[in-house]
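The authors assume throughout that readers already know how a fold can be written as discrete tokens. Each protein is reduced to its one-letter sequence and a matching series of backbone shape codes. I therefore recommend that a typical entry be quoted early in the introduction. For illustration, here is how one protein appears when written out as sequence plus structure tokens:
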Amino acid sequence: MIGILASVIDGILIGAVYGLAAMGLTLIWGVMNVINLAHGAIVVIGMFALYLIAHSLGLHPYGAVPLMIVFGFVVGIALYWIGVHRMIGRSELMSLLSTFALNMVLIGLGTAWWTTSPYNVQVSMPALSWRGYTFTGTHITAAVLAVVIAGLLYLLLYHTRIGKAVRAVATNREAAELCGIPTTQVLAMAFGLGVALAGVSGTLIATMFPFTVLSGEAYQLKSFVVTVLGGLGNPAGALMGGIALGLIEGLATPFMPVSWIPIVEFGLFVFCLIAFPRGIFSFSKA
């Protein structure tokens, strides 16, 4: 029984990072109705950016988190102007094709530079022991940072003029333009924020697990599951959905092979689409 509880706690810690990754996906969807299929590649950018920073500059991985947020924001704005701006207002298929093209370009460049060999970032953090079970310090720290970043996003969206502009554009872009809000700049900034969240989630994941250029696909799929759980366009629901997904993984791991976990997750994905199309946590507002 204690072993199951320990597995659940560890799953919840990892789930908080899943939620942070999904917040980037759902923020972009909620503001501009764009499903970002480059999301997984952006998570990988965060992983390898941390690897380069830790090895080249000698910074502590967690000390690089603020730098990664700024870097991700700048990369996001660049990607917006390159592949998304002209798709705003067009059919969703156009934005899907555009972001999928960005995804393939990023993966291709990453494969050319780093191949598909596994990498890892060495992080030394004190672990927490409880009744013979050890919870790694990297999991605890990553979960705490994910919740803190999510809280900062909430403050940005609800307690700043920039956040009010983002929510106004998400609610009614035409009305926001009539009120004098520069909607194009707001959309670029929202995309940058979404990419920054995805990138910093990749940074936190890289402190916990080994990774390759192709690792982003798995986390992109998890982000879609979390987004459906939390409700499209609902960042707070995404965080709750991520924790719920981690809880489910923690509960399932002691009773079935790890290879069955994706089947459980996508079974849940289909169930939520049918039974809760607006998301289980759609009541939460972010």
The mean pLDDT is 87.
